[in-house]
Write a structure and sequence with these properties.
With 193 residues, the protein is α+β, with helices and mostly antiparallel strands. Helix content is 20%, strand content 33%.
């Protein structure tokens, strides 16, 4: 498997409200993208609390974890959070707010989170399930990147350097008005040259 992540605060800020996280236990891999509302110290505080809560609950399904986060982040400014759990060849995904997840195989599939802000009483949290292929590339990112990312033409199933891919996406698609968070995961190797 291959994993890479990159976060970057808004220019002029020393705090970053975006997190790109990887957790693993005996049976599953959990990928998380968090965007604390706004930017600066309070956005980072909300994102850090989300990271702590998720890390304590990775044995649960993504929708359950988001419900817990919604209760626990109530005294923060809130966050957009996307969680992917990979277990037994299946991907389970739930998201709330404006984080995105993209699955890249022969084509690109962009998944959106449910409407709302984690910590502000989310009404609906869906759980999506999908079978994974060993060459699928999973990209999760915050709204600090434009969502028109094009990867499929560079995807060829060969093992390669995902740090190069993440840097290329970051520099080509980043917005200069917000923090940025992105992660890329593949079960075996990366497919970017």
């Amino acid at each position: 498997m291959s994993f890479a992540s990159k976060i970057n605060p808004l220019k002029g800020e020393s705090y970053c409200g975006d997190k790109a996280l990887y957790f693993q236990n005996d049976t599953a891999t959990v990928l998380v993208i968090i965007d604390g509302l706004g930017h600066g110290r309070y956005a980072e505080e909300a994102a850090s609390l989300g990271e702590e809560i998720i890390g304590e609950n990775i044995d649960k399904m993504p929708d359950e974890i988001l419900r817990i986060c919604d209760r626990e982040l109530i005294n923060t400014r809130g966050a957009a959070i996307g969680i992917s759990k990979i277990e037994n060849g299946l991907l389970y995904y739930s998201g709330v707010g404006n984080t995105r997840m993209m699955i890249v195989d022969e084509k690109q599939n962009l998944l959106y989170g449910d409407y709302g802000v984690v910590g502000k009483g989310v009404q609906k949290i869906n759980l999506l399930t999908r079978e994974l292929n060993e060459n699928d590339l999973i990209i999760m990112f915050t709204d600090g990147l434009r969502e028109n990312i094009k990867v499929v033409n560079s995807f060829n199933g060969k093992e390669n350097n995902i740090e190069k891919l993440i840097d290329n996406i970051f520099w080509e698609y980043r917005k200069r008005t917000d923090d940025v968070g992105i992660l890329i995961y593949q079960l075996r190797g990366c497919a970017y040259e």
